[in-house]
Amino acid sequence: MINFETRPEEYKHWRLEIEGAVARLSMDVQEDETLNEGYKLKLNSYDLGVDIELADAVQRLRFEHPEVRVVLVTSLKPRIFCAGANIYMLGTSTHAFKVNFCKFTNETRCAIEDASAHSGQRYVAALNGTASGGGYELAIACEEIFLVDDGNSAVSLPEVPLLGVLPGTGGLTRLVDKRKIRRDRADVFSTLAEGLKGKRAKEWGLIDGYFPTSKFQESVNEHVQQLVKESGVQDQKGIRLNPLEVEVNADGREYRYVSLKLNREKRYADLTVRAPEGETPATIEEIEQLGDAYWPLRAYRELDDALLHLRMNELETGLVCLRTEGDGANVLKVDETLIKHKEHWLVREITLYMARVLRRLDLTAKSFFALIEPGSCFAGNLLELALSADRTYMLNSPDEEVSVATSEMNRGALPMSNGLTRLQSRFLATPEKVAEVFAHEGSFDTEEAEEAGLVTFAPDDLDWEDEVRVAIEERTSLSPDALTGMEASLRFAGPETLDTKIYGRLTAWQNWIFQRPNAVGPQGALTNYGKPTQAQFDYKRT
Amino acid sequence: MINFETRPEEYKHWRLEIEGAVARLSMDVQEDETLNEGYKLKLNSYDLGVDIELADAVQRLRFEHPEVRVVLVTSLKPRIFCAGANIYMLGTSTHAFKVNFCKFTNETRCAIEDASAHSGQRYVAALNGTASGGGYELAIACEEIFLVDDGNSAVSLPEVPLLGVLPGTGGLTRLVDKRKIRRDRADVFSTLAEGLKGKRAKEWGLIDGYFPTSKFQESVNEHVQQLVKESGVQDQKGIRLNPLEVEVNADGREYRYVSLKLNREKRYADLTVRAPEGETPATIEEIEQLGDAYWPLRAYRELDDALLHLRMNELETGLVCLRTEGDGANVLKVDETLIKHKEHWLVREITLYMARVLRRLDLTAKSFFALIEPGSCFAGNLLELALSADRTYMLNSPDEEVSVATSEMNRGALPMSNGLTRLQSRFLATPEKVAEVFAHEGSFDTEEAEEAGLVTFAPDDLDWEDEVRVAIEERTSLSPDALTGMEASLRFAGPETLDTKIYGRLTAWQNWIFQRPNAVGPQGALTNYGKPTQAQFDYKRT
């Protein structure tokens, strides 16, 4: 079982040093400290374990070190920055693992860009040696890239020429869509196993600068100090992200505010988020004092962990029933506080994180049904769970109160990867309905919710149990692959962004290639990498 | 060998009737007239042969019947409109065939939308019976959809529940991006094998109207007459599209203006387009008189045919070297005429068609290198060939004249699927370069072209032969699958449109699923369709 929690004191592959406004995040992969057996992490190549630490560092920097303005990403290995995802790990992994591994690493790189864009923590890649494949893809997720000019070090994407797969961790998309490299040059670069060194790499826009070995550290540091100066001093004091207290049992995971209950034989899970109880804090001082115990931060960290667990450790669970429990009024009070203090760094970070967790949900290759019953609290930020679901069932009961409600948080604080709110994505044909939903006074009972277009089905007491049971049975009987492709197409209507292009177009092609005999068959390039035998291709183009 | 040329007199599966401003395009698939053996085309299901006729009809309507304002797409079979792509055909096809078949059918549907949008020929689907799968996908490519309300007929996308694949001929994308169906309803609809009938289908936005059997024809006709009235009378007289005269030999195809020479053992082809010779017409009268012999129409029809031939009949050809021959001044004269008369229907149609052919090239899963040598004429519309290539090599010779040139046609008349010109796509990072290119006086010699960013490499006489040879050898040695994924990612930087979402996101997922054992393995849903055995899924979600 893969565990997604870690902390700097436990890092094996990264060193995180903070010096005032500058964080130095240094890769120093220990080749024997692998997540699985059968490969060695040579030349700063990475497996999921390495990336879990990176994701943790990126997250902690935002919460624990808000004073940091520049994150310098570099390596402690001489002459090598990072050789990318470990090929032997990929070669020995199942298809499902490869796909989920790539998705997680993509999310980590998008989180780096999110920090640069929204938290004022600018990432600078200081390539003290060659960055190849996933190594360059990590660099290209940073705002700026500097390469040592030692006559040897290069940036490269050798996946196509050496491995018969794609630079699928955002590489191809970021080349032409982020750095806007001319497509013919991107073509040459992506087929050139040895890559490009300083001068040519700069000329083509692959890096932002290069310095000779003797001046590399000094020049990069100067530039970093310049960036710090530009961004001004931030004297915020971070909060600590303590380990989640999770009780793991045979059928699931119990957190403080989240429960994951697995119905393995039926291949679905119940994922319940509970509202805060009692008084919720209203001032910044109270929030800072609560720190990571503050409901939205804690509940969403738990939700995040549960989603990752479902993805990686519960592959056969095809459907997740999203449920909520507790007092919706308390959820709305939280939202009110988050909106009121949205300019405060900690509230901003909590909100940005909630948005990332919800995007993680959107991008999870499982079906989601939201079940809205008496005692549930799909209100404000938790309404996003219902809006992110593939379908929503809401009980229509004459006797019991069932309701959903919006808050200001549904207006744009929690955007999807396509840049729209979930309500905007829902009502592309009738954008006026978004305004109507917000114009509605108070909560929506079932009939109002149905009328407003917020729910898919509203069965009554008599039908509820059967209808939900049948829907679950039907969904879990369908081809899991067809569902993945269908959901990836239906969830992201409307505009496309760098992120959706990576998760849609690039990932879909990479997954296709990860199935192809030319990559993973006995004669495939991935299979034969590093062996004396040569790859043999079926040259039919499709 | 698949032949892409046909004409109404030879149609087996469609009937095309013109009555004034209304064309009636009726599907009546002959179940034994299949393109390959091993299946029967029951219930108006289709194979590539059926779609080649449809594509031909859509094309001819624009050139031969410009007076047509509304195209009524319907069926001659009672109670069935169209059952979609034939499952047994799909089940017995190779992966490469399936993928290329889907691409062609997608292009046909996009051509229908192109006709509605730009030629004022509005397509109306009159579903006189059930439209399922590809049948509904054909309907949804039309501007309006009317369904008979006979208590039985429905629209449906049963691919996911019945076949474990996607409605990949644009279906999923058009549901949420064109018709903007609410995503939860799209989810329900796409998992509901039996689909939805009149009332609910209308309520959910899947159709535009429904009429009882007794009033169906009459009501649809009334609506069609209304549309005709709105669009006003067009008294244009069409031109005839005669069969291409192509000389087929063992190593390629010779057309009037296009040569395709296959170097099969080296897995690449030379595709040459020749400029017009002598005087080119300058007036509408001369153009109308020339008809389909007019250079841009003829040359691009030949290019289109050659591309389709390469895709379907020459699967192992991985690289196409694009070449041109003749007097660039003549090409520029053609462009001048096309721009001057762009408001005339025939010139408009020719230009729209040139744009479609170039998009067909962009979407072809082969590598393209443009080779610019003495005697070539990459000018104006033919410059688009170089701009659409993955790379461009231009000889830098002190002795011989080598040049390229732009025309007004490069400014927007020939857009890519992403809505940009090829120059805009090329210079996303430096949009000012587009203006600089147009500000340049006269043609570009090699050094000017390189300086302007129009070519990738400019080897001199000494290096040219070796450099091109090595580039060809290297390209054709790479994994064809990795190249397909790479090119699909690098060619379409910038904005995404309905079209690019279909060819990128949806197609990539469909191709992935077409590889998965859950669809095509011995226990897969596609394999087991119609057999007494049931599909068995590996339920791991990826």
Q: In terms of quaternary structure, what is this?
A: homodimer
Total number of strands of chain A: 22
Q: Over the alpha carbons, how many angstroms does the gyration radius of chain A reach?
A: 24 Å
Spatial shape of chain A: globular
Distance between the termini of chain A: 37 Å
| Portion of residues within helices of chain A | 40-55%
What fraction strand of chain A?
15-25%
3D architecture notes:
Two copies of one chain form a homodimer. Chain A has 542 residues and is of the alpha/beta class. Chain A folds into two domains: 8-231, 2-enoyl-CoA Hydratase, Chain A, domain 1 (Alpha-Beta Complex); 247-484, 2-enoyl-CoA Hydratase, Chain A, domain 1, CATH 3.90.226. The first copy, chain A, has 22 helices and 22 strands. In chain A, strands 13-14-15-16-17-18-20 form a seven-stranded mixed beta sheet, with helices on both faces. In chain A, strand 14 (252-254) and strand 15 (258-263) form a beta hairpin. The first copy, chain A, is globular.
Task: Set out the fold topology.
The structure is a homodimer of 542-residue chains.
Chain A: E1 14-19, E2 22-27, E3 45-46, H1 48-64, E4 70-75, E5 79-82, E6 84-85, H2 87-92, H3 95-118, E7 122-127, E8 129-132, H4 134-140, E9 144-149, E10 154-156, H5 159-163, H6 171-178, H7 183-190, E11 196-197, H8 198-203, E12 209-212, H9 213-231, E13 247-249, E14 252-254, E15 258-263, E16 268-274, H10 284-290, H11 295-313, E17 319-325, H12 328-340, H13 345-362, E18 367-372, E19 378-379, H14 383-388, E20 391-394, E21 403-405, H15 422-426, H16 432-439, E22 444-445, H17 446-452, H18 461-477, H19 480-490, H20 498-513, H21 517-520, H22 525-528
Parallel strand pairs in A: 2-4, 3-6, 4-7, 5-8, 7-9, 8-10, 9-12, 16-17, 17-18, 18-20, 19-21
Antiparallel strand pairs in A: 1-2, 10-11, 13-14, 14-15, 15-16, 21-22
